[in-house]
Amino acid sequence: MEGNPLWSRRGFLGMGAGVLGAAGLAACGDGSGSSPKAPVAEVPQALLDAAASLKGTSMGMLSQKLYSTAANEALDASIRKFASATGTTIENSLVQADSGDVVAKIHAEVEGGVARDLAFMTDSRFVAQFHALGDLEDVTDVVTALTAVYGEPCAEAKNFCVFDGKWFAIPYHFIGIGSFLRKDWMQEKGITPKDVYTWEELRDLCLAISDPAKRRFGWGMTVNRSGDGNGMIEALINSYGGAIASNDGRKVTFDTPETVQAVTFLGDVYTNPKYKTMLPPGVDSWTDTSNNENWLAGVLGYTRNSFSVYADSKTKKNPVYGNTHVFSDCIGPATDKSLLLGQSQGFVVFKGAKNGALAKVLAQYLVSAPALVGVAKEAPGLAMPAWEKVWDADPFFSGGDPAFPMLRTMSQQPLPLPTKNGLSFPQKASAGQQAVVAAYVLTDMMQQVVQGTAPAQAVTAAHAKMVQIFAQQGLPQ
């Protein structure tokens, strides 16, 4: 790497402390492994030069916990390498994003002047909320420099990280999201896997491959409070032509016939005795790790998840991996193709950051292929490149797994994706929508339906709660 002229000092001349120019950012993947004993990628000279004046300083970082201990350790190793090479001190702490109060806690830290300098958080779930609270610094300078070398960032990030033409989060890595079926169970029943299913087809398939006597339960999703439950419910409603809000993200539009139709369908899955045999024991009280654990235990026929569950099955050599059929989200009455966008983790610099300059240099190192590949190998599909040219910078990203091409297509697909009734996804990033999801309004609504509330009544009540939450976020209805 030292001989690569793209890592020269010229990369950041005239650019301001902490932000490299285009020439200083190119990636040079070495294909190295990510085990604790494997060497961690050297910090390029251009970044060392950018951080030279910051030697002896310190900063704090907050990392959204990945569902892979080895991936978290690989990230820590890259951070330690950077800190050692730059003569700085960096404290990295993990945060559980599905606690429901993570935004409120971090906002209080920002207001109290004790927030970490840098954090990465899922863009479609959190960035709009932090921006609406005034917690974030403008990082357009960093994104502009990265774009000049790495090409375009993942498509959905342009919607969830940009406000009034300015970037408030730096795309870090793309999070694959997918649906997973047990293809061996399907083959035993003479069912050929497909790449596209309607929700009704999926429900019937899950019933067909279930066999409680063999501990085989087809439908591996919960509507209890969880990030996965939220994601599944919202995706299904969107495919039926419903949405929490209007396309501009400002007006609650939840209470519609399309939403009621979707909620009726999903409620029937959990309440109709016909489908009882495909529901795992205790599914009504599952938390966010439950479908992961049950999938890896080999008792589920279908689940919908970030690629954490897929990554675990591959890295731990679980036989489930070889029997997994990966496909995108199901389609509904309002869609001809999946609305699945994936997500990305974005680096944010908090207002009042004591060492924002160092935070920006560290972010530029961590998005590069040499620093990211170690994390990606421990979490294949869960931590993929967020930048077009990083995909080609290490052979692991282009050929490390049969599912990777689908994820690359998802990350770079033209957006927005339309529905037949005028919705388009992604909708404009909305603090109201993100706060509604974080408050588990969707899962609470479905729990009411499971307990006997009529779907139309539950939708109307959820709509009323959403109106209150939007008002609290500065979006009165």
From TrEMBL:
InterPro entries: Bact_solute-bd_prot1 (IPR050490), SBP (IPR006059), TAT_signal (IPR006311). Keywords: Signal, Sugar transport, Transport. Pfam families: SBP_bac_1. Belongs to the bacterial solute-binding protein 1 family. This is Multiple sugar transport system substrate-binding protein. It comes from Actinoplanes xinjiangensis.
